[in-house]
Design brief:
The chain is α+β, with helices and mostly antiparallel strands and 284 residues long. The chain is 47% helix and 18% strand.
C-alpha cells in the first residue's frame, strides 16, 4: 500500500460511518423514507428509465416492497411510467431543486470570472458543492465551439475519484473529514481502495498548491482540474473545476499553466467576499 493510500485509510479509520437504511430503525429514522429517496437517487442522465426488477436488484429489496414504494412515488408525482412500463423521474422532481438554486445567488456573481477561465482554457467551467457522498454541479459555463458538450446544473459525481470531489474534501477538517472518508470507504470499498493514493495526494496538493488534477479517474475521456473556493454563509462547501477533452489536454500544460491559473482564479474569487476561506489559509 502506498503512503497516500495508508494516509487516507488512517483518516478513514478515525471516522464514524453514516447510518444506512438497514440501521436507521435503531436510531429513530424512517427506513421507508430513506428507501424511497434511494430509489429516486438511482436515476441518472445515462439511466433515465429503470424497471421494478432493476430497482429491486440495485437496492437489494424484494419486488413487492419496491412496487409499493414506486406506486407511492408515482402518486406523489415524483416518478412516472413510460409507455414501456418502466419508471422515470417526473418533472415534479425539479420543483424540489428550485429552492436550492434560488438561494445560491452567489453562483450568478461568478459567471463572468467563470467565462473568462473558460475562454482561457477552452474548457468547461463548473461550480460544485458537496452533498453527502457526492458533489453536485450548480453552475456551468463553457465554449460550445471548442467543447460541444456543456454539462447541465444538477449533474452529480463521486467525491473520492474526481477533481471536484477531491477539492471539496480538501475543505474538510479533522473529524468531519475522517467521518466522510469512513462513509465513502463503507459505500465504495473497491473504488476507495483503488483511488486512495490519488485522493490523498489531491487533498494535500489542494492545500499546498491550491489545485488538483484528475486524468480520467471519473470520466475516462475528460481531464479535470479543480480548486477549493471555501464555504458559503449557509454552510455549503464550494469548488471550481475545469474540464477538458483528454485528446486535447497536454499534461505539462495542465500541471504548469492551467493548474496555477485556476489557483490564482480561486484567490481572486475569494476576494469577492462570497466565501469563508479554507481553514488551511487562515492567517495567510
Amino acid at each position: 500500500m502506498s503512503d497516500g493510500s495508508t494516509l487516507l485509510n488512517q483518516w478513514a479509520d478515525a471516522g464514524h460511518c453514516e447510518l444506512t437504511s438497514e440501521t436507521a430503525a435503531d436510531h429513530g429514522l424512517s427506513s421507508t423514507l430513506m428507501r424511497g429517496l434511494e430509489i429516486l437517487a438511482l436515476f441518472s442522465d445515462t439511466e433515465a428509465r429503470l424497471s421494478n426488477a432493476e430497482i429491486a436488484r440495485r437496492l437489494g429489496l424484494n419486488r413487492a416492497t419496491v412496487s409499493r414504494l414506486c406506486k407511492t412515488l408515482v402518486h406523489m408525482g415524483y416518478l412516472r411510467r413510460d409507455p414501456r412500463g418502466s419508471f422515470r423521474l417526473a418533472p415534479r422532481v425539479l420543483a424540489l431543486s428550485y429552492p436550492v438554486l434560488a438561494v445560491t445567488r452567489w453562483r450568478h456573481q461568478l459567471v463572468v470570472p467563470m467565462r473568462e477561465i473558460a475562454e482561457m482554457s477552452s474548457g468547461n467551467i463548473t461550480l460544485a458543492v458537496m452533498s453527502g457522498d457526492r458533489f453536485v454541479q450548480v453552475q456551468t459555463v463553457g465554449d460550445p465551439v471548442s467543447f460541444p458538450h456543456i454539462p447541465e446544473p444538477g449533474i452529480t459525481g463521486p467525491l473520492h475519484r474526481s477533481a471536484s470531489g477531491r477539492a471539496l474534501l480538501a475543505l474538510l477538517e479533522g473529524q468531519e473529514l475522517y467521518d466522510t472518508l469512513a462513509d465513502l470507504r463503507r459505500r465504495f470499498p473497491e473504488e476507495f481502495a483503488a483511488h486512495a493514493g490519488a485522493t490523498a495526494a489531491a487533498i494535500e496538493r489542494c492545500r499546498s498548491e491550491g489545485f488538483c488534477t484528475s486524468y480520467g479517474d471519473w470520466r475516462p475521456n475528460i481531464v479535470a482540474l479543480a480548486t477549493p473556493l471555501g464555504q458559503t454563509e449557509d454552510g455549503l462547501r464550494v469548488a471550481l473545476a475545469c474540464g477538458l477533452p483528454r485528446f486535447r489536454a497536454r499534461a505539462e500544460h495542465v500541471e504548469t499553466d492551467l493548474g496555477p491559473r485556476m489557483a490564482e482564479a480561486a484567490e481572486s474569487i475569494r476576494l469577492m467576499g462570497l466565501f469563508e476561506p479554507p481553514f488551511y489559509l487562515a492567517g495567510s
